[in-house]
Protein backbone atom coordinates (compact mmCIF):
# COMPACT_ATOMS: atom_id res chain seq x y z
CA UNK A 1 0.00 0.00 0.00
CA UNK A 2 1.46 3.33 -1.07
CA UNK A 3 1.69 5.84 1.81
CA UNK A 4 0.01 9.17 1.13
CA UNK A 5 1.75 11.71 3.33
CA UNK A 6 -0.15 14.87 4.28
CA UNK A 7 1.88 15.61 7.42
CA UNK A 8 3.74 18.52 5.84
CA UNK A 9 5.14 19.85 2.59
CA UNK A 10 8.57 19.25 4.14
CA UNK A 11 8.34 15.52 3.33
CA UNK A 12 8.96 15.94 -0.41
CA UNK A 13 11.87 14.17 -2.10
CA UNK A 14 14.17 15.89 -4.63
CA UNK A 15 13.13 15.27 -8.22
CA UNK A 16 15.59 13.59 -10.62
CA UNK A 17 16.23 16.95 -12.31
CA UNK A 18 16.94 18.56 -8.95
CA UNK A 19 19.36 15.78 -8.04
CA UNK A 20 21.21 16.34 -11.31
CA UNK A 21 21.46 20.05 -10.59
CA UNK A 22 22.89 19.27 -7.16
CA UNK A 23 25.42 16.78 -8.55
CA UNK A 24 26.64 19.26 -11.16
CA UNK A 25 26.75 22.33 -8.90
CA UNK A 26 29.86 24.51 -8.93
CA UNK A 27 31.00 24.94 -5.34
CA UNK A 28 33.40 26.84 -3.12
CA UNK A 29 33.72 27.74 0.56
CA UNK A 30 30.60 29.72 1.43
CA UNK A 31 31.90 30.87 4.82
CA UNK A 32 34.53 32.77 2.83
CA UNK A 33 31.84 33.91 0.40
CA UNK A 34 33.42 31.83 -2.37
CA UNK A 35 30.62 29.46 -3.35
CA UNK A 36 29.36 30.71 -6.73
CA UNK A 37 26.11 28.74 -6.58
CA UNK A 38 25.23 30.06 -3.13
CA UNK A 39 26.10 33.58 -4.25
CA UNK A 40 23.86 33.21 -7.28
CA UNK A 41 20.99 31.93 -5.13
CA UNK A 42 21.34 34.82 -2.69
CA UNK A 43 21.32 37.34 -5.53
CA UNK A 44 18.31 35.66 -7.13
CA UNK A 45 16.20 35.53 -3.98
CA UNK A 46 17.01 39.13 -3.03
CA UNK A 47 15.88 40.17 -6.49
CA UNK A 48 12.68 38.10 -6.25
CA UNK A 49 11.84 39.69 -2.90
CA UNK A 50 12.70 43.25 -3.87
CA UNK A 51 15.32 43.56 -1.11
CA UNK A 52 19.02 44.44 -1.25
CA UNK A 53 20.67 41.25 -0.10
CA UNK A 54 20.01 37.73 1.12
CA UNK A 55 21.67 34.98 3.14
CA UNK A 56 21.33 31.21 2.62
CA UNK A 57 20.79 29.34 5.89
CA UNK A 58 20.07 25.72 6.83
CA UNK A 59 16.48 26.13 8.04
CA UNK A 60 13.49 28.41 8.36
CA UNK A 61 13.84 28.41 12.12
CA UNK A 62 17.40 29.68 11.82
CA UNK A 63 16.34 32.34 9.30
CA UNK A 64 13.64 33.60 11.65
CA UNK A 65 15.87 33.50 14.70
CA UNK A 66 18.70 35.33 12.97
CA UNK A 67 16.13 38.01 12.17
CA UNK A 68 15.14 38.17 15.84
CA UNK A 69 18.80 38.60 16.79
CA UNK A 70 19.40 41.26 14.16
CA UNK A 71 16.45 43.38 15.27
CA UNK A 72 16.24 42.82 19.03
CA UNK A 73 18.32 43.04 22.17
CA UNK A 74 17.76 41.27 25.52
CA UNK A 75 14.57 42.52 27.25
CA UNK A 76 13.06 43.81 24.00
CA UNK A 77 9.60 42.67 22.95
CA UNK A 78 8.44 41.19 19.66
CA UNK A 79 4.75 41.48 18.79
CA UNK A 80 3.35 38.50 16.89
CA UNK A 81 0.24 36.40 16.39
CA UNK A 82 -0.36 33.66 18.98
CA UNK A 83 -0.07 30.78 16.52
CA UNK A 84 3.06 32.07 14.82
CA UNK A 85 5.82 29.64 13.91
CA UNK A 86 8.30 31.61 16.04
CA UNK A 87 6.07 30.93 19.07
CA UNK A 88 4.80 27.41 18.41
CA UNK A 89 7.58 25.63 16.52
CA UNK A 90 10.99 27.11 17.31
CA UNK A 91 11.76 25.58 20.69
CA UNK A 92 11.45 28.73 22.78
CA UNK A 93 14.36 30.26 20.88
CA UNK A 94 13.22 33.84 21.48
CA UNK A 95 13.97 33.38 25.17
CA UNK A 96 16.80 30.86 24.90
CA UNK A 97 18.88 32.69 22.30
CA UNK A 98 18.04 36.36 22.58
CA UNK A 99 16.33 37.02 25.93
CA UNK A 100 13.44 38.52 24.00
CA UNK A 101 9.88 38.64 25.28
CA UNK A 102 6.99 37.89 22.92
CA UNK A 103 3.63 39.62 23.14
CA UNK A 104 1.19 37.32 21.37
CA UNK A 105 -2.07 38.51 19.82
CA UNK A 106 -5.14 36.34 19.19
CA UNK A 107 -6.51 36.36 15.68
CA UNK A 108 -8.91 34.98 13.14
CA UNK A 109 -6.89 32.46 11.12
CA UNK A 110 -3.53 34.07 11.83
CA UNK A 111 -4.19 37.62 10.65
CA UNK A 112 -3.98 40.38 13.25
CA UNK A 113 -5.55 43.81 12.78
CA UNK A 114 -3.98 47.28 12.73
CA UNK A 115 -5.97 48.09 15.85
CA UNK A 116 -4.54 45.09 17.71
CA UNK A 117 -1.00 46.04 16.79
CA UNK A 118 -1.52 49.67 17.79
CA UNK A 119 -2.89 48.60 21.18
CA UNK A 120 0.02 46.20 21.74
CA UNK A 121 2.82 48.71 21.18
CA UNK A 122 4.29 49.82 24.50
CA UNK A 123 4.58 53.39 25.61
CA UNK A 124 7.99 54.67 26.70
CA UNK A 125 7.75 53.42 30.28
CA UNK A 126 10.63 52.10 32.38
CA UNK A 127 8.35 49.39 33.80
CA UNK A 128 7.73 47.79 30.41
CA UNK A 129 9.88 46.11 27.78
CA UNK A 130 10.56 48.05 24.61
CA UNK A 131 8.39 47.17 21.63
CA UNK A 132 11.06 46.51 19.04
CA UNK A 133 9.72 44.23 16.31
CA UNK A 134 6.49 43.18 14.62
CA UNK A 135 6.70 39.67 13.17
CA UNK A 136 4.07 38.46 10.69
CA UNK A 137 3.62 35.15 8.83
CA UNK A 138 2.47 34.66 5.22
CA UNK A 139 1.00 32.20 4.48
CA UNK A 140 -0.06 31.40 8.02
CA UNK A 141 0.54 27.77 8.90
CA UNK A 142 -1.77 27.28 11.90
CA UNK A 143 -4.33 29.54 10.29
CA UNK A 144 -4.71 26.94 7.56
CA UNK A 145 -2.49 28.41 4.85
CA UNK A 146 -4.12 31.82 5.10
CA UNK A 147 -2.84 34.55 2.78
CA UNK A 148 -2.38 38.11 3.98
CA UNK A 149 -4.38 40.49 1.73
CA UNK A 150 -1.79 43.01 0.62
CA UNK A 151 -3.77 46.10 1.68
CA UNK A 152 -4.33 44.70 5.17
CA UNK A 153 -0.66 43.77 5.40
CA UNK A 154 0.29 47.32 4.41
CA UNK A 155 -2.04 48.76 7.05
CA UNK A 156 -0.57 46.62 9.83
CA UNK A 157 3.00 47.40 8.78
CA UNK A 158 2.22 51.13 8.69
CA UNK A 159 1.13 51.04 12.34
CA UNK A 160 4.44 49.44 13.31
CA UNK A 161 6.45 51.88 11.20
CA UNK A 162 4.81 54.93 12.78
CA UNK A 163 5.84 53.63 16.20
CA UNK A 164 9.43 52.98 15.10
CA UNK A 165 9.23 49.18 15.11
CA UNK A 166 11.08 46.98 12.65
CA UNK A 167 9.04 44.45 10.68
CA UNK A 168 9.95 40.82 9.95
CA UNK A 169 7.98 38.52 7.67
CA UNK A 170 8.15 34.77 8.12
CA UNK A 171 7.52 33.95 4.48
CA UNK A 172 8.27 30.24 4.64
CA UNK A 173 5.36 29.72 2.22
CA UNK A 174 5.42 33.17 0.64
CA UNK A 175 5.50 31.76 -2.87
CA UNK A 176 2.24 29.96 -2.12
CA UNK A 177 0.76 33.38 -1.40
CA UNK A 178 2.20 34.68 -4.67
CA UNK A 179 0.67 31.88 -6.71
CA UNK A 180 -2.69 32.07 -4.92
CA UNK A 181 -3.12 35.82 -5.47
CA UNK A 182 -0.99 36.76 -8.44
CA UNK A 183 0.81 39.30 -6.26
CA UNK A 184 4.60 38.89 -6.54
CA UNK A 185 6.38 37.85 -3.36
CA UNK A 186 8.10 41.23 -3.39
CA UNK A 187 4.73 42.90 -2.87
CA UNK A 188 4.83 41.84 0.77
CA UNK A 189 8.59 41.50 1.28
CA UNK A 190 9.56 45.00 0.14
CA UNK A 191 7.37 46.43 2.92
CA UNK A 192 9.49 44.69 5.57
CA UNK A 193 12.96 45.04 7.03
CA UNK A 194 13.60 41.31 6.76
CA UNK A 195 11.79 38.43 5.10
CA UNK A 196 12.55 34.73 5.34
CA UNK A 197 11.58 32.15 2.72
CA UNK A 198 11.88 28.37 2.82
CA UNK A 199 13.03 26.18 -0.05
CA UNK A 200 12.25 22.83 1.61
CA UNK A 201 8.48 23.19 1.95
CA UNK A 202 6.28 23.63 -1.11
CA UNK A 203 9.24 24.29 -3.38
CA UNK A 204 10.51 20.78 -2.77
CA UNK A 205 14.22 21.30 -2.07
CA UNK A 206 15.76 18.95 0.51
CA UNK A 207 17.06 21.67 2.81
CA UNK A 208 17.53 25.39 3.17
CA UNK A 209 15.96 28.80 3.66
CA UNK A 210 17.01 32.38 3.04
CA UNK A 211 16.79 35.62 4.96
CA UNK A 212 16.61 38.82 2.92
CA UNK A 213 16.89 42.47 3.91
CA UNK A 214 19.13 45.49 3.54
CA UNK A 215 22.83 44.95 2.87
CA UNK A 216 23.66 46.20 6.37
CA UNK A 217 21.19 43.86 8.08
CA UNK A 218 22.38 40.87 6.06
CA UNK A 219 26.02 41.61 6.99
CA UNK A 220 24.98 41.33 10.64
CA UNK A 221 22.86 38.27 9.83
CA UNK A 222 25.95 36.56 8.38
CA UNK A 223 27.74 37.07 11.70
CA UNK A 224 24.80 35.60 13.62
CA UNK A 225 24.55 32.66 11.23
CA UNK A 226 28.16 31.79 12.06
CA UNK A 227 27.46 32.15 15.78
CA UNK A 228 24.55 29.73 15.51
CA UNK A 229 26.58 27.15 13.59
CA UNK A 230 24.86 27.81 10.28
CA UNK A 231 27.94 28.58 8.23
CA UNK A 232 28.36 25.79 5.67
CA UNK A 233 31.30 25.14 3.38
CA UNK A 234 30.59 23.70 -0.10
CA UNK A 235 26.92 24.57 0.27
CA UNK A 236 26.42 25.07 -3.45
CA UNK A 237 25.20 21.47 -3.64
CA UNK A 238 22.24 22.55 -1.50
CA UNK A 239 21.86 25.97 -3.09
CA UNK A 240 21.60 24.30 -6.50
CA UNK A 241 18.47 22.50 -5.33
CA UNK A 242 16.98 25.79 -4.14
CA UNK A 243 17.80 27.47 -7.45
CA UNK A 244 16.20 24.62 -9.35
CA UNK A 245 13.11 24.94 -7.16
CA UNK A 246 12.87 28.69 -7.80
CA UNK A 247 13.12 28.13 -11.53
CA UNK A 248 10.83 25.11 -11.87
CA UNK A 249 8.60 24.63 -8.83
CA UNK A 250 6.98 27.99 -8.06
CA UNK A 251 4.18 28.05 -10.61
CA UNK A 252 3.38 24.39 -10.03
CA UNK A 253 2.30 25.31 -6.48
CA UNK A 254 -1.09 25.98 -8.09
CA UNK A 255 -1.42 22.19 -8.45
CA UNK A 256 -0.99 21.76 -4.70
CA UNK A 257 -3.65 24.40 -4.07
CA UNK A 258 -6.05 22.65 -6.44
CA UNK A 259 -5.37 19.31 -4.77
CA UNK A 260 -6.06 20.84 -1.33
CA UNK A 261 -9.40 22.17 -2.56
CA UNK A 262 -10.24 18.78 -4.09
CA UNK A 263 -9.34 17.06 -0.83
CA UNK A 264 -11.41 19.50 1.23
CA UNK A 265 -14.43 19.12 -1.05
CA UNK A 266 -14.21 15.34 -0.78
CA UNK A 267 -13.79 15.34 3.00
CA UNK A 268 -16.75 17.70 3.40
CA UNK A 269 -18.95 14.91 2.05
CA UNK A 270 -17.65 12.28 4.47
CA UNK A 271 -19.73 11.70 7.59
CA UNK A 272 -17.62 12.22 10.69
CA UNK A 273 -15.38 14.89 9.17
CA UNK A 274 -15.94 18.64 9.07
CA UNK A 275 -14.03 20.39 6.30
CA UNK A 276 -14.67 23.82 4.81
CA UNK A 277 -13.54 24.01 1.18
CA UNK A 278 -14.21 27.77 1.06
CA UNK A 279 -11.47 28.29 3.63
CA UNK A 280 -8.75 26.56 1.62
CA UNK A 281 -6.61 29.36 0.21
CA UNK A 282 -3.38 27.53 -0.54
CA UNK A 283 -2.04 24.02 0.14
CA UNK A 284 -3.11 23.55 3.77
CA UNK A 285 -6.47 22.49 5.13
CA UNK A 286 -7.68 22.06 8.68
CA UNK A 287 -10.35 19.47 9.50
CA UNK A 288 -12.37 18.45 12.53
CA UNK A 289 -13.32 14.86 13.35
CA UNK A 290 -16.24 13.67 15.45
CA UNK A 291 -13.82 11.14 16.95
CA UNK A 292 -10.62 12.05 18.84
CA UNK A 293 -7.96 13.22 16.42
CA UNK A 294 -5.35 10.92 17.95
CA UNK A 295 -7.59 7.94 17.20
CA UNK A 296 -8.15 9.08 13.62
CA UNK A 297 -4.47 9.79 13.00
CA UNK A 298 -3.58 6.30 14.20
CA UNK A 299 -6.38 4.63 12.23
CA UNK A 300 -5.53 6.47 9.03
CA UNK A 301 -1.82 5.72 9.46
CA UNK A 302 -2.71 2.01 9.49
CA UNK A 303 -4.33 2.63 6.09
CA UNK A 304 -1.32 4.52 4.77
CA UNK A 305 -2.70 8.06 5.12
CA UNK A 306 -0.42 10.24 7.24
CA UNK A 307 -1.50 13.52 8.87
CA UNK A 308 -0.86 15.47 12.05
CA UNK A 309 -3.29 16.20 14.86
CA UNK A 310 -3.49 19.88 15.84
CA UNK A 311 -5.96 19.58 18.72
CA UNK A 312 -8.24 17.11 20.52
CA UNK A 313 -10.46 16.70 17.44
CA UNK A 314 -8.62 18.63 14.74
CA UNK A 315 -5.92 17.82 12.20
CA UNK A 316 -3.89 19.49 9.47
CA UNK A 317 -3.35 18.12 5.97
CA UNK A 318 -0.80 19.61 3.58
CA UNK A 319 -0.63 19.00 -0.18
CA UNK A 320 2.72 19.08 -1.94
CA UNK A 321 4.90 18.02 -4.85
CA UNK A 322 4.65 14.31 -4.04
CA UNK A 323 0.83 14.16 -3.79
CA UNK A 324 -1.05 13.70 -7.07
CA UNK A 325 -4.72 14.05 -7.97
CA UNK A 326 -4.94 10.24 -7.96
CA UNK A 327 -3.47 10.24 -4.44
CA UNK A 328 -6.21 12.62 -3.32
CA UNK A 329 -8.92 10.29 -4.59
CA UNK A 330 -7.24 7.26 -3.01
CA UNK A 331 -6.85 9.10 0.31
CA UNK A 332 -10.56 9.98 0.31
CA UNK A 333 -11.39 6.31 -0.23
CA UNK A 334 -9.21 5.32 2.73
CA UNK A 335 -10.73 8.02 4.96
CA UNK A 336 -14.21 6.69 4.19
CA UNK A 337 -13.02 3.19 5.06
CA UNK A 338 -11.53 4.40 8.35
CA UNK A 339 -14.76 6.07 9.41
CA UNK A 340 -16.88 3.10 8.46
CA UNK A 341 -14.97 0.78 10.80
Written overview of the protein:
Strand 5 (131-137), helix 7 (150-162) and strand 6 (166-171) form a beta-alpha-beta unit. The protein is globular. The protein folds into 2 domains: 16-248, Aspartate Aminotransferase, domain 2, CATH 3.40.640; 252-340, Aspartate Aminotransferase, domain 1, CATH 3.90.1150. The protein has helices at residues 16-23, 36-49, 60-71, 85-88, 93-98, 114-120, 150-162, 174-181, 185-189, 215-227, 236-248, 253-267, 293-302, 325-340; strands at residues 4-5, 53-57, 77-81, 101-105, 131-137, 166-171, 194-198, 209-213, 273-274, 284-289, 305-306, 308-309, 314-318. The protein contains 14 helices and 13 strands. 42% of the residues lie in helices and 17% in strands. Helix 2 (36-49) packs parallel to helix 11 (236-248). It is an alpha/beta fold. The mean pLDDT is 98. The strands form 3 sheets. A 7-stranded mixed beta sheet has the order 2-8-7-6-5-3-4, with helices on both faces. A 4-stranded antiparallel beta sheet has the order 9-10-13-12.
Based on the model shown, name its key terms.
PyrdxlP-dep_Trfase, ArAA_b-elim_lyase/Thr_aldolase, single chain, 341 residues, Low-specificity L-threonine aldolase, alpha/beta, 13 strands, 42% helix, lyase, Aspartate Aminotransferase, domain 1, 7-stranded mixed sheet
Amino acid sequence: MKPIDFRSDTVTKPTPAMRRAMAEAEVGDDVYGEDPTVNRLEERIAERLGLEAALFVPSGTQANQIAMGVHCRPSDEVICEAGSHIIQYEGGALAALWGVQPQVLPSERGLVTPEQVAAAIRTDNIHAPRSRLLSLENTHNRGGGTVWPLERFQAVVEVARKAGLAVHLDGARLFNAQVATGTPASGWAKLTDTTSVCFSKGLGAPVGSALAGSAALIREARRLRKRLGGGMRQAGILAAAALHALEHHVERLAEDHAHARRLAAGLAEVKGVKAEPSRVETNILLVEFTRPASEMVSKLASLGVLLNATGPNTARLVCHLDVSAADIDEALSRVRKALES
